[in-house]
Protein 1
Amino acid sequence: MTIVFTGPSSFTGAFFVKKLLESGYTVFALFRKNTYEGLRQRRIEMFCKNAKCVFSCPFGGDLFFETIKKIPKIDFFCHHAAKVKDYKSCDFDPIHALENNTRRLKQLLPILKQKRCRGLILTGSVFEPGEGVGSDNLRAVSPYGLSKGLTAEFFRYYTEKYHMPLGKFVIPNPFGPYEEPKFTAYLAKSWLQGKIPHVETPFYVRDNIPVTVLAESYLRFLDSFEKGVLYKKAAPSCFVETQGAFTKRFSKEMQKRFRLHCPYTLAETQTFDEPEMRTNLDPIDFHWDREAFFDEVATFYQKECK
């Protein structure tokens, strides 16, 4: 089967594409830019030899439509790309992001129907309004979360209007190799550099999920997409616990691989600028190799810190 995938250079996108290719899908990977560097380039190298890569092809652009029209049949259109620059800033513009995420969608949907597309798969976030379980009435956690929620509503309205099946795949807190320098990167690099990391938000309850487990969940979601279903959602969940407890878990896993003590300190108090709890809904129901995953994480950061 053939998949068109936007946003393949992102952390989760690269692992999704890699997993789909390994499972026998033909994947057209559409990139917004012509060239990449750093982590994004290294992610692309994970799958570029096996995917059909098209560069300088942002969602909704002229080359995008030229490319789509040349593909004889499209089984799934996976829209993983989204505007994320400065996503943590309060100045992030959700309306501009919405326009970017949905550009010329109404022109795309009839073409997908002509290509006998089984479904359009949209990536969502647990930090959107109304997603997951948690506190603060499930409000949008940030302007970025708001933009993702607006995007989802836009897609659902127009896919229903054009009778195009829509699948929504909700992402919680992924972690693993090739991730941007976020929480687990901070922990691992601190230990390898002989430093003691300090956790400022130990009381947040979050849903941390290995990126390879998330990719397997994505593949299973596509494989389970039944004909005739107009809307379906998956919200995979893994380690639901406080960030303090997750730090303890991650420290234990890295300690035996780094052969270091891996100490850390936790803040005694915390200001809750975000909802105290926000997690996904669907616990992972398949076996995955924890030892192999954490081995890969440790090896990645050991190479990074040489």
Note: The mean pLDDT is 96.
Protein 2
Amino acid sequence: MAKKNLKSITVGFVSLGCPKNTVDSERMLAEIIQAGCLISSDPDDADVVVINTCGFIAPARQEAVETIKHAVDCKRKGSVKKIIVAGCMAERSGKGLFDEVEGIDAVVGLGQRDMIADIVKQTLSSGRQSVYLEPSSAAINDDRARLLITPRHWAYLRISEGCSHNCSFCTIPSIRGKLRSKPAELVLSEARELISSGVVELNIIAQDITSYGRDLGKKDSLPELLEKLSAIGGVRWIRLMYLYAAGLTDRLINTIRENEKILHYLDVPLQHVNSRILKDMKRPETKEKISRLIDKLRHLIPDIVLRTTLIVGFPGETEEEFQELLGFVERARFDALGAFKYCAEAGTPAASMPGQIPQEVKQQRMDRLMLTQQAVVFEKNKGRIGTKLTCLIDAADAGAGRGRFYGQAPDIDSICIIRGCTAAKGTFADVKITGTKDYDLTARQIR
């Protein structure tokens, strides 16, 4: 498409959802910019608003619906001309979105991500609603040439699409298809591109990064990929996100322990610990396997930082089984923990299971779980007072800085608030921890 055709078009862009969705948003923004459009600093005042949505669970869909309705209000006032809804919610609902929220002009599925600039033009010139949905379950996206919406010194690196696990509560395989691993050379090419643009921290993501290569007949191939990534000059930190517990092999653990660029930080979503519930979730772990894994990790990598995600209120969860989960959290002493109230998602096996838990019970259990975890974190943070750490600086202004040590992932974890910070954004600084502020650490820079 000739750039002159789109030069006068302003596009407002809203990105919702997980890091995988962020990567898709960055690719779409790059396509829009390369086509000659202007990205509006105010999505409420643009020719076209593109909303890249999440459709994983009900709260995410509700956030998307509210965002769309806000754009529709702007359209009715005349400050916005057209509204395009893309991403997982668009893929899941298709043309049904037109009935769910009036005022949408186009629905764009995951397989049409790289056609977004053409779709913007077509939508702006069309007087009818349009649907762009084609099968995407066999596609392997090329995520090179992105316009980063993360700070320029860190980025997400997606190594595969989809998921071949069959967790009974999850909609991801039905939305994004089965596992499709990117060829290693494509992953390495993208990593080089990100590093050449100034990225020093690569956050490795997928639905489950430990499954990388299995669809290609290669078992336990993540360690080999990580070794190749760490050999690229310029990368300082490699962070591993979304690891299936059953996929943490001895070879992978040893690679994490021995490779100085791979951070001693693991994000391992466990979902629960009760063996009966795990079986109903169609997870391969048991309480005993999980406990042995945590003990092994802490024995082999003493400074390991562990993050997990749990679900409360899964169908049939008894008070006794929830108490078992609370006790496990107290003993496991995770450094960070996220939790969800179970949502009955249409089309998933768990949605039709007996013993659905009332919403008020789910909320009570969520509150009790997070208070239990809060006590663990506050105690662990106090134990860091007086220690010296190296921080990657995310912001610095007039001697006040915000940074993260290796045990703090961007956007989801706590931060270090640094007094006397003279280091520039995107560089590393040695600090001494001086105190705590809620979940965050306070520090001063060591010169």
Note: The radius of gyration is 23 Å.
Protein 3
Amino acid sequence: MFDILSIVPGKKKLTHGGWHSFNAICCHHRGHKADTRGRGGIKKDGENWSYACFNCGFKCGFTLGKQISDITKSLLKWCGIDNIQIQRWSLESLQYKDLLDFAHLKKQKTKIKFEEHKLPEAEILDINNPLHKVYVDYLSARLINYNDYPFLVTPNNTGRQSNRIIIPYTYNNKIVGHTSRFLDNKIPKYINEQQPGYVFGYDFQKPDWEVCLLVEGIFDALSLNACALTHNTINDGQVQLLAQLNKQIIFIPDRDETGLETCDRALELGYSVSIPNWDDSVKDVNDAVVKYGKLPTLLSILSSATASKIKIKLQRKKIEKRLRK
């Protein structure tokens, strides 16, 4: 289908409420003074979107599986789209109706469930325990507050079970898995006990939040109360789980080849993608938080988020060029 954000002319700014704001294009067509204060806005939900002008009051929208309404056709015409193309898009939308109806029924019948999981023998992280200092220092260096999550540590274990921080996985406040982050500089650094379709940080998300940040790594998620894939792909089970949140998803890839390739999958799913203009030394979200701070990192992510394939392609090329150096 079509990307409305690439059709509407002018610069756009993503607000905290999930609206892409810009100078409204409808006002002078409706006999009002042209907007110069960024009073127009588009809010996307996958392929679906709503347009609202807070200057002249014009509103319209699009829902995949339905015909394009006459009022929405007016907006598209003001953007320079001819009648033939609009009709093509309208017919293409109708072709999705049966598929979407089936997907909706399937989603209603499917209940996501994860089995409860027993954690390994370990100690709760205690800042006052001298044996825990190495773990506290590690989290502090990554600007992770050790009081914000029930971290476990293994200072008295031996062999490969020692020198690790254990991070429980929860779903609906039940333990359903864990990951171990080893501090002994051996490979692998992480060992996960993760059930198919699980997304770390699901329980972080609040009902009144309109946006969910989606990252790859555990510490990226802990840095900004985001959701983490814990790998560099988005599998079907994770898509289904994230859909339950009913929020705008913004994917922030790691600055490597596999992370950038996952952008294509995110865009196909109707997610937004954010590739902020961070320093070359920044490899992921946690690096950005350490370098810039929590709030500046969050603002840079929100302001860089887009669903435009063209914009993401250009941003990816910049990162890929740096990786080849």
Note: The first helix runs from residue 4 to 7.
